Amino acid sequence: MKYLSYLIVLAIFLTPAFAGDAADPIAAEADKCFKTPQGETTAGMTACSHQAYIAYDKQMNELYRRVMESVDPQSQERIREAQRRWLAYRDAQRRADDGPWRADRGSMASPDIEAMNIDAVRQRIQELRYYAP
Asked: What is the mean pLDDT of residues 29-55?
């Protein structure tokens, strides 16, 4: 069962939307973490995934800053509004993920949800790259 769980979490890092990121150091670091004895536990999978999420969130914020420095004022306004709305959605989704329903879903809910959060932030990074110089 723990190998199946590992494969599910790892699959998020190998989705087709990110196939071009073969040299992704964050995914490589997460993969190393998953392969440790701690990373094979449910709590370890969640921790490894959360570390990756934090790193991707930082990457997204740095990219957003570079984008905002490189575009015209009208584009800045539109991109800023889109980013604010995306962040509001992300925060609302995380609150929903932490609802009481979760108590009945078993221990794999945590790494599964963390993997979905990673997928969302990686997708947003791809979207922001369209605006980058």
From this structure: 95
pLDDT tens, 43-60? 999 999 999 999 999 999
Distance CA 73, CA 70 (A): 10
Residue 130 is given by DSSP the state: T
User: Which structure tokens are listed for 91?
Assistant: 């925060």
Instruction: Round to whole Å and give the CA distance between 56 and 27.
Output: 9
Determine the pLDDT at residue 60.
Answer: 98
Higher local confidence (pLDDT), 1 or 76: 76
Q: In Å, how far are 4, 45, 80 from 37, measured between CA atoms?
A: 15, 10, 42
pTM of the model: 0.82
Decide if 86 contacts 125 (C-beta within 8 A).
no
DSSP result, 3-40:
HHHHHHHHHHHT-GGGTT-TT-HHHHHHHHHHTSTGGG
Joined together, the tokens standing for residue 52 give 């990756």
Provide the total of helices (H) and of strands (E) in the chain, helices listed first.
5, 0
